[in-house]
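Work through this:
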Amino acid sequence: MKVLVIGGVAAGTKVAAKLKRESRETEVLILTKSEDISYAGCGLPYYVGDVIHERSQLIVNTPEKFAKLTGAEVETGIEVTGLDREGRKVTAKDLKSGETKEYTYDKLVIATGASPVVPPLPGLDMKNVFMMRTPDDAEALRKAAESGTIKRAVIAGGGFIGLEVAENLQSRGIRTTVLDMLPHIMPGFDPEMAEFVEDHLADQGIMTLLDTKLEGVEGDGTVEKVKTSRRAIKADALVLSLGIRANTAFLADTGIELAPNRTVLVDDHMRTNDENIYALGDCSMITNRMTHARAWSPMGSSANIEGRIAAQNIAGADVSYPGVLGTGVVKLPGLNAGRTGLTEQVAKEAGHDVVSVVAVVDDKAHYYPGADSFLVKMIADKTTGEFLGIQVLGKGAVDKMVDIAVVALSMKATVQQLEHLDFAYAPPFSTAIHPFAHCINILLNKMSGSLDTFTPVEFAEGKAEGYKVIDASLKPTLEGVEFMNLEEIDGEVEGHPKDEKMLLVCAKGKRAYMLQNRLRYYGYTNTKVLEGGSTFNGEDLTED
């Protein structure tokens, strides 16, 4: 059997390597437009910031090394320009010689990836306009940053790559602004979580301009100003991180089914509508594991899973891909962020009876050096108890919280089933009640009614109007707010009728919950706890 793979990097090299292990006798040939067959695209921002010191560290395999290691053949500098499905062959151009070539196949794998979106705006051909897709892109930006000529940079696009580039440029002393045409950065996070990150970035010196469109660049051959729908920004460089577009133009008029964003539609075996053609990686459209709706997951992690599955199926197995969960994690200055599963809005759109909670919990034993907090949003279905998703912010290992949630979501666990899991505990790693379990307990308390709250969103919407704010902290903390000491509550509180509306606030929410529990015992019926406390909502909670 002759298998032709178009494209390298993660998806193409994975399918080729796995296929040669599954079926050594299969003839596998990779055609790639680039000279680099396999590189760490997700590591590019860290090369810009000199966290990764050498470009060679980004190159996972050279074509020669990959061929010897796997047995697959590789031809670089080959751009596929056409597909003849009936004849089972592709037409390609040799970029070195200009020669047109034809390659035949029994099975074809399309792993052509995607290219950066470059809008048709004035000035984007100027010097110091950069992208972040290949090692060459990272090399160009790094050299410019090291030259000392860049003092101010604008990043167009508030996704993970754009934010990672912002962090790494800032670490080099370059003043950085991120602009995005959406209301918030970090797609896949609920608005209140993204807003917390935006405020944090501002504190770190990275400004975000939201609901703002890029309109072009001004300068005398080199970037001097970045024009936006709000105002012009003085800058020495612009980094385009506006998203990517699948490299599927050569499939026009071939009958291969494409999604509206021009990615290739595949089934759960990674097959296209042609049984002899597979597609995977950034150029393919798969499904969401939970909603079963079509989903695009241009991630190296997804590409590797898809490559493995496609190879097994080509070799004669019957392996299905259940789909992606939208898992992601990003490192920011002084803050990490991770998420998986459904956001609150998507869960509602999917028909769930949504309940959520925002909790602030310790990431390890509070007395252990380096201990900090996780800011967690958990989402579930109130009626069925199904666990639906998590979003986590914090200085520590947010990925471990997200990865636990990935397993829970994949097993379709209920919140109740997650209540008594036997997590690893030692002070350097966790708390005696694991932070994931702690958040589950808080969510269960809310679902049972033993915890009555306002979410940060409800508070921001003004639903706490008419409630008297009470400082429930260990000691008076909130300026201009009455303090109520939990340890001194032993009956009716003088000056507070039992039907009084009181909003109980402490640093994280735990002490406010304990105060609510005690006040209820003594007959107080209208108390609410502010989820996330002053840590998430800020300390300016004084009443107008």
Observations:
- The chain has four domains: 2-114+245-314, 129-242, 328-448, 453-537.
